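pinging the channel bc i need a second pair of eyes. not urgent but kinda urgent?? the chain im working w is below, pasted from the shared doc
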Amino acid sequence: MFSTAIRSVPSRTRDGAVNVFIETPKGSRHKFDIDDSGLFRIALELPEGVTFPFSFGFVPATLAEDGDALDIMLVTAGGLPAGALIDARLIGVLKMENDEDGTMARNDRIVAIANMSRIYEGVETMSEMRHGFAWDIEEFFDTYNRMIERPFRLVGRGEKDEAMAMLEAAEERHRGR
């Protein structure tokens, strides 16, 4: 079964790359989630003219502070299909909070680059991305949260070292569960 296969994927490859499982492809107007059976379900449709700017997914075998797998925004030049497993490297983090049952809670997004990317092959940290990159993504999240009428707040940005520390903490939480 598909869900069993996902659970058996480690957080990193043998050569140290981070495994990223894609739920929502770049350019999609639909947010996908994996349900308890391991199937993709449409969780949300974005308004006309709004699409996901990059692919979104998670790192298997991790447990973030919010109780889910560690969220990843995967930078690639083109789209990838939902269900793809991609080798990536972490370059930074966008720090955010949103409402979870009446309380503002951290819901950070780790930013990663697909190792196969030719366009972004020399980028190792978020500060090396084009001017305005992080602002553009923050604006997407602001729009997205306003659209679903969920309180949202930007907290800050972090570089590769913070993203790696978050990954290591999420791997440790997963092992300790």
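so The first helix runs from residue 2 to 7. and Residues 93 and 158 are 5 Å apart (CA to CA). — does that match what u expected or am i reading it wrong
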